[in-house]
Amino acid sequence: MEDKENAGENISSADADPEIDVAKSRKEIFVEAQGNKLEDKIEKLEHELIQLKEEHLKLSNELSREKGYVKGVTDGSFNQSFQKDYDKEMKRHIRQLKKYNELKDLGMGIIQLIADQKQSTLRGIMDEMGIEPDDK
């Protein structure tokens, strides 16, 4: 009787193994399919990257011709020239901003002196002069 029970257990354990194998094979198929999809996606993105790089080069060369640059983008001269122009413009902007702030501080100082002379508030003098608070 024990042999029959053991035989039944062997059959059920043998039946369980194919189910596990089927589950594994389904999982393997799914993973393989996902891998193929990812590989296809990677290939597509790499192709798109190449196209974008070609388009960038084309547009950069076109821009350099329009700006009158003799050298092309490939040797980096355009980017260096662009960076120099950018740095020059940024320095000019900073100089103008400093000048503006100095003039603004000077104007506010003069208005404060007038307010002190008239024994008034800064806001009162600004209202008399027609200067809006946002104009400070």
UniProtKB/TrEMBL annotation:
GO biological process terms, semicolon-separated: meiotic DNA recombinase assembly involved in reciprocal meiotic recombination; meiotic joint molecule formation
Pfam families, alphabetized: Swi5 (PF07061)
Keywords: Coiled coil, DNA damage, DNA repair
Superkingdom assignment: Eukaryota
GO cellular component annotations of the record: Swi5-Sfr1 complex; Swi5-Swi2 complex
Coiled coil start-end: 28-103
Family: Belongs to the SWI5/SAE3 family.
PANTHER family with a match to the protein in the record: DNA REPAIR PROTEIN SWI5 HOMOLOG (PTHR28529:SF2)
Name of protein: Uncharacterized protein
